[in-house]
Amino acid sequence: MGGATALALLLGALGVSSHDAARQGEVVRLVRVKPADAEIRRVVIDGHQRSGTFRALMDELHQSHMIVTIQFGPCGNGRIRSCVSDVQTDGRQRFVRVKVDTRTTDDRLIATIAHELQHAVEIGRDPEVTTSDQALALYRKIALGSCGQGMSEKCETQAALDVEARVNDELARTPRRD
Fold first, then answer.
1. What does 145-172 look like in DSSP terms, one character per residue?
2. Nearest to 132 by CA among 158, 97, 159
3. Pairing status of strand 94-100 against strand 82-89
4. pLDDT tens digits, 8-65
């Protein structure tokens, strides 16, 4: 098998077209950040290519002992656009499941995924958080508003809000290249 064919197969397995890789000069690594389907994979790659903040989040997660799966799914019976829905461990690495509502624009979805990746980073920075209950306890300490006061399980951090706003700004300045 020729080198170009092998590269094309590898890129295809990662969900990256050779055109996308060539125009950016890099292959987007999806080792620790795992889109659950082709549509989310496409959006994650677009976010990685267009936003330095998005890339930095993925880079930090790729240095961790975590697997972050991003999938379509409802949060709060459809009332919340995204959430960390599960945290588990097998003793060697942690698994974080993120759900997002994909019924929005690509740029809005990229910023929403970045928001949830920030939450995964927050979890990853605390080695004691290995279950969903421990993640909730972490957010009781660091979250804003009623979650931090123990009155809600809808938890939000200023860091995630800031990341989302920064990614939105970066995307507005870096249009898609089709």
1. HHHHTTS-S----HHHHHHHHHHHHHHH
2. 97
3. antiparallel
4. 443 444 444 433 443 445 678 799 999 999 999 999 999 999 999 999 999 999 999 9
